[in-house]
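Q&A FORM
Asked by: J.P.
Topic: structure of Serine/threonine-protein kinase 17A

PROVIDED:
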Amino acid sequence: LDFANMNNKNNGMLTKIHTRIRTDPFTANYELGGKELGRGKFAVVKKCVEKSTGKQYAAKFLRLRRKGEDCRKDIMNEIAVLESAKSNPYVVALHEVYETSHDIILVLECAAGGEIFNQCVGDSDEAFTEEDVIRLVKQILNGVAFLHRNNVVHLDLKPQNLLLTSARPLGDIRIVDFGLSRRMDSITEVREILGTPEYVAPEILNYEPISTATDMWSIGVLIYFMLTGESPFLGDNKQETFLNVSQINVDYSEETFQGISPLAVDFIKTLLVKNPRMRATAEECLSHPWLCPLTRPHLHSAPSSSSHRSSLDEPETSQSESEPESP
Ligand code: ADP
Ligand code: MG
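REPLIED BY: S.T.
REPLY: Here is the structure written out as tokens.
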């Protein structure tokens, strides 16, 4: 299996943007901290401070040309999706946009807690508890349900694209990276789009139509990873990973899910379903007993023996019950 990068296809892309693209120098208005917040395939993200307000932001530098091709359309699509989701608190806020000779700079709300990835693989003292995961998953689903109601699919949901407002104390979710996002009602051809192998749904591997259910698969993989610290389909190489995905080769053993409530496992099983039509939707997920306050006390009857998460026996705080949480 060899997949090309997403590029040069217009289908499903949003093109209309409302944000004014500023051409005055970015550096006249922002002080760039030396600190790099992260980077992906085509972007570098740096911390910056707005001179007029002293407020911190994350500046995402997107190259206008990639591999010799003009990528303005991809960037406009990313901006348009951010604009369309600006009323949802769990989607990162877009503050301003600048254009230089080589880059478009997205000035984004800074999610200072970094990627949830770091706390999925951390030691027991820094890893998420199941209660943490429940709170964060509700926020992720709230954001994703919003996108889906607006006919937008993210298509690159993974721990590197889900950030936290703060790490300690554990803050709230900010969904970032809409570079692969598409509008469902105008998408026809998907061969060119592919996220990260570990998070990719079976229908993508089979060149079958993508849908909002494609995101739900990734969320299933994500929750598995947040709870266990293990990536369910990851093989020794790409081929093996793709084979695991297409065969839905998942380990639900008690050993892997030690100390995790059976409801959590049940929840994941509603998402890692081969047929996209049979997969739970974001709205359905939000009313699953695992996330429902009324059934939550059951969690505490499970012994918490695992070292990866161990605070299930702590009393529930009223804060984790409030929904929706404000940012
Ligand atoms: P790419 O499209 O290249 O993957 P992303 O938007 O995912 O770019 O940004 C790359 C990385 O930069 C992210 O994985 C994250 O670590 C960091 N990052 C992105 N946006 C922010 C933000 N608003 N606040 C803090 N860090 C960010
Ligand atoms: Mg990314």
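FOLLOW-UP: Residues 1-9, 301-307, 309-327 have pLDDT under 50 and may be disordered.
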